[in-house]
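Form 7-S
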Amino acid sequence: MAGYDFDLITLGAGSGGVRLSRLAAQLGARVAVVEESRVGGTCVMRGCVPKKLLVYGAHFAEDLTDALGFGWTVGEVSFDWARLIAAKNAELNRLEAVYNRILRDNGVTLLEGRGVVVDPHTVEVAGERHTAQRIVVATGGRPSLPEIPGIQYAITSNEALDLMQLPGRMVIVGGGYIAVEFAGIFNALGVKVTQVLRGDTVLRGFDQDVRAALSEEMVKKGIDLRCETVVKSIEKTKAGYSLRLSGDETLDADLVMYATGRRPNTDGLGLEAAGVPLNEDGAVVVDEFSATAVPSIFAIGDVTDRMNLTPVALAEARALVNTLFLDKPTTMDYTGVPTAVFSMPPVGTVGLTEAQARTAHGCAFDVYLSRFKPMRNTLAGRDERTMMKLIVDRATDQVLGLHVVGADAAEMVQGFAVAMKCGVTKAQLDATIGIHPTAAEELVTMREKRPDPSPECQE
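Output:
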């Protein structure tokens, strides 16, 4: 639009910001994207991608051990953490170059520096002001640390991805997906890992059977889980660090990592001064169309703290492009979004947990649950079991929730998520022929309902 430098300025060149900027530019909009760090954002540079590469590297420790059971003689092996980190960094550099080229090829202007919203149509970057008809905030989130004595000695997942040597003893504080993923990585690579968490077990908010199955397998792999425990303080010692826990117990470590939550990146952006409300956690308040209270300012992705997943940010970006540039007001559908935790073993889940089903459907649902040793583990001699669970609406036979803990869980659940989006029923799963022998066939062969543990629901 005449009178503005750009039609759109996007704050943040992460997954959502790059997708939004590219799609808008392809439709003829004059677009600039502001980034003060690396193009690619949290997922590509500090989250999903580098973490998954480290997960792959850690899995080789188990693969080498398992090979013995299949007749392989494995000679002397060694592991070079620094070499894995260097390879990871090379891949991130490649991906950043790809993202930069995507922006260039689509005519998007990259403004390097921290963007500050001056008014509803102006963003200041590195001392220079740029105007736009619309501004979209897509600045993501960052690790959040509690205020306890000695917290300055702790690292977060950001620093954990760039360690140049492995510690001998490590304490990971937190019970969420980031904590369990890094616990699995470091434990598999020989670090003595103690995980301290406030809750009764890992993955608060996930299905209870998922939580129980994963915690059991983590303990079997050698991770020391300290549940219902709080860190009171951290002190630096000659040998490393000393943590004082609730109950005045102490714990010694060479490295302390915190993964106790994330916070939206809104500090110092000038949003409130521009009239954009933030909630008590610092997230940008938006409506179902990702619009803020200021008509020209919108927000997508983790900075809104709605559903903090990369594919969700991508979908929110496309919906906003439809709304702003195609005259097709589009809202994001947050139901039936699958997710995975790349723990060891991994978790895949889609739909309702049993607790959520209880709230929504009372006693009117059935549960099918199976725990078994996968075929690979029989010859490998690995004492690791897979857990699969279906939650089914008794009245409609529709599958309400599907949960897997075990190898390839994410790959399985992605496919079943499509079926659930189409309203798949238990009868349709039953009528589907399984691929044998696979673990996934268990999801279409479960026939026995689990008795309902709730006294009020027992017949």
